[in-house]
Amino acid sequence: MAAAAAEEGRLKLLGFWSSPFVLRTRYALNLKGIPYTNVEEDLFGAKSELLLAANPAHGGKVPALLLPDGRSVSESLIIVEYLDEAFPGTPPRLLPSDPHRRATARFWAAHVDGALLPAWIPLYGGSTAEERVEAARRVVGVLETFEGVLRRGDCCSSGEEEEGGFGFFGGDSVGLVDVVLGGFIGWLRASEAMCGVKTIEDGSRTPLLAAWAERFAALEGVREILPEVGRLVEYNQMKRALRGLPFLPPHQQQ
Ligand SMILES: N[C@@H](CCC(=O)N[C@@H](CS)C(=O)NCC(=O)O)C(=O)O
């Protein structure tokens, strides 16, 4: 009874533990300290009526944020921005107040889904080892772009600071690009186990980004829910098996 009462008036997030899109919204909620109830959807069975009703345009994709008054917000980037606008008094502010920096942060956040995601998909689901390795190389190429964004402080710099001196894309504290790219850290860490090529951890190509990933992953609100590489790799293996794809190239299978 008391638990039910406590649930009332809370946000509810419909999600799935391994989804980079869900994770970015959970990082935003956790880092801002916004109370919410996390609900794991069954993406392999029947999706909940709540999810289907929240996002009918996309056939019920996670994440979906349910508001206490029954309305909902869908699409991870929109949810993150909504949270920042609806809870302006809870730091960190994820979107810069300066219009140009805000536009720049939105540009790079969109680039995660526009460039990193399509590069990463064949790493996850490619049918040959070569395809997966090639995908990992392309992912590193996109990460190099983000290395430059971080080094120059594109989303936070006033132009007077020294390059490379920013802990986060948002500057001294996390911002929009941190949580959006941060959603992929677990999967990027899994790339070595998935295809033998390091991506985010390759400090020789992207040293600032490798250090950023460590820093972001260690934050309270992130470290508790960041999926472990072993669990992600197992999940990938299971998804590939469902599609009839081997996890390892034939010569490496036992
Ligand atoms: N553009 C969407 C992507 C969401 C998405 O693809 N979610 C996947 C999980 S990673 C999902 O719901 N898959 C189940 C389905 O499509 O039925 C966002 O940013 O929220």
From TrEMBL:
UniProt GO MF annotations: glutathione transferase activity
Coiled coil: none
GO cellular component, one term: cytoplasm
Keyword Transferase: yes
Gene Ontology biological process terms in this record: glutathione metabolic process; toxin catabolic process
InterPro entries documented for this protein: Glutathione-S-Trfase_C-like, Glutathione-S-Trfase_C_sf, Glutathione_S-Trfase, Glutathione_S-Trfase_N, GST_C_Tau, Omega/Tau-like, Thioredoxin-like_sf
Catalytic activity: RX + glutathione = an S-substituted glutathione + a halide anion + H(+)
Enzyme class, spelled out: transferase
Keyword field: Transferase
Pfam families according to UniProt: GST_C_2, GST_N_2
Signal sequence annotation: none
EC number: 2.5.1.18
Domain GST C-terminal intervals: 98-242
CDD domains according to UniProt: GST_C_Tau, GST_N_Tau
PROSITE patterns: GST_CTER (PS50405), GST_NTER (PS50404)
Keyword Ion transport: no
Domain (GST N-terminal) ranges: 9-91
Source organism superkingdom: Eukaryota
Designated name of the protein: glutathione transferase
Species of origin: Brachypodium distachyon (Purple false brome)
UniProt lineage: Eukaryota, Viridiplantae, Streptophyta, Embryophyta, Tracheophyta
